[in-house]
Amino acid sequence: MKEGPDISRVAALIGDPARANILTALMSGKALTAAELAEEAGVTPQTASSHIARLAAGGLVTTRRQGRHKYVALASDEVGTVLESLIGLAARSGHLRTRTGPRDSALRHARVCYNHLAGDLGVQVYDSLTVRGMLAPEGEALAITHAGRRFAEAFGIALAPLERRRAPLCRNCLDWSARRYHLGGALGRAMLARMEAADWLTRGEGRVLTLTRKGKAGFAESFPG
Amino acid sequence: MKEGPDISRVAALIGDPARANILTALMSGKALTAAELAEEAGVTPQTASSHIARLAAGGLVTTRRQGRHKYVALASDEVGTVLESLIGLAARSGHLRTRTGPRDSALRHARVCYNHLAGDLGVQVYDSLTVRGMLAPEGEALAITHAGRRFAEAFGIALAPLERRRAPLCRNCLDWSARRYHLGGALGRAMLARMEAADWLTRGEGRVLTLTRKGKAGFAESFPG
DNA sequence: CAATTGCTTCGATGGAGGTCGAAGGATGAA
DNA sequence: TTCATCCTTCGACCTCCATCGAAGCAATTG
Q1: Average pLDDT over residues B116-143
Q2: Fewer CB within 10 Å of terminal CB in chain B, N or C?
Q3: Phi and psi at residue B40, to the nearest 5°
Q4: Overall domain count for chain B
């Protein structure tokens, strides 16, 4: 009937609430077991099993058996990118959930977005780096400056191995809660890993990140407003 | 149950084949009437009317009455971007349609992708500009060089007004048919408009573009391999 | 070897929604 | 006004599929 790839199949996969919850939970970047995903999605293990099988058949997730556990993860960065762009579009179109849970405010403050830092804290980092000339946004694109490279190395991040990969080093990532940009890409992931290693942040339930006392001081010093 | 914008609602809207066809047809950038969309989607006018109402309620399209016609268009560039990224994901995940129509090969050669040039011809332009140092890709980002600015102005494109807009000037757009990048963004749109004005290309059925004799010579001269 | 845990398959149920025929506006043309 | 065209609403049908109970398989534990 029409030409091109069948976009509706992929969209229909994401279009079920239970599957969307599963995919959203996987955006933390961690591999989760089928039982955990069932809990996240609010369905029974049987139902989750069927959904996971569909997502895997559709190429959106990969599964790996380990003992009697089945670990599920997003199939690629591209899937995560598509999900984030859908979240952005949904937020702008006013498709907010009717029920906002108690974790909501904590999520707005600091959360994981495919292994990089998002939320108000992520926006603060982005703004601080941009104002001080470490990052150079050009439209939707984002480049790192020489000053930014020095800063990253001083922060404990080796840029060279990150740049050898095909994935972009810096990427503007649109924050659905703040409607502002935060730092994605390989550098964003490396920075979050560094912050976790330095005990600035601890992972809470789901995608929530909690700021430690040490982190509070560290952010104020390294990323002044 | 979960936090954040409701991604599944938007995805479910795109997830119906008829609606996906409608949205894909609108990616030409033109506003189409309800009857035309019904034809494109392969459903009756009643069904199309219902789908259009849902898409409008979901914020994906805008409608405008003009006489007894109802013109439908994508609501924003962001919707087009999400659709393209979904097309890319679908193509990589192997969700190709079972039936490939006769227009398929023409589409692979040259087509409209949200008002800029895509297909083999679009990739040729992109590669030619990149090799000759007019465009500077950095990861997923894309910048225009000084040489590129001179080239664009000589091609009859005033860059200043384009840069005042918030939308990016250059954007890498992933081609589902060639799996390579072509030039999107404001500059991509301006170049296609210029090519059409110069009678290099004519719009065929749907998103198909046909190369004229004049255009054949023009491409060979302006965008040598 | 049980017993327990984690996942999957099968079958039945129920609901959501896509589809079109028929009829009813709404707009413009003759 | 009358007609034709375009779109919409209503109602009925029907398919698809999400969901869960029950049972079965697989792997670890005692």
Answers
A1: 82
A2: C
A3: -60, -40
A4: 2
pLDDT in tens, A160-218: 888 776 667 887 776 655 556 788 878 888 898 899 888 898 877 667 788 888 888 88
Interface residue A24 vs chain B (CB under 8 A)? yes
Confidence of residue B3 (pLDDT cuts 50, 70, 90): very low
Tell me the C-alpha to C-alpha distance, in Å, between residue B32 and each of A66, B15, B26: 52, 21, 7
Q: CA of A100 and C1' of D22: distance in angstroms?
A: 35
Q: How far is CA B8 from CA A62, A97, A171, in A?
A: 20, 10, 25
Which residue minimizes Cα–C1' distance to D26? A68
Domain span holding position B37: 7-77
Residue A84 maps to a domain: no
Residue A139 pLDDT exceeds 60: no
Question: Of A51, A79, A107, which marks where a domain is finished?
Answer: A79
Please list, in sequence order, all residues whose beta carbon lies within 8 angstroms of the beta carbon of residue A99, skipping any fewer than 6 positions away: B1
pLDDT tens sequence across A78-136? 898 899 889 888 887 765 544 444 455 677 788 877 678 888 888 888 888 988 888 88
Residues B70 and B167 both lie in one domain = no
Please indicate, yes or no, whether residues A107 and A193 belong to a single structural domain of this protein: yes
Shortest Cα–Cα distance, B158 to chain A (Å): 18
- B56 and B109 in a single domain? The answer is no
Residues B121 and B16 reside in one and the same domain: no
Contacts of A58 in chain B (CB under 8 A): 93, 95
Instruction: Please check whether residue B88 lies inside any domain of the structure.
Output: no
Query: Position B44: which residue type?
Result: T
Amino acid A83: pLDDT: 92
Q: What is the mean pLDDT of chain B?
A: 82
- Assess if residue B92 is contained within a domain: no
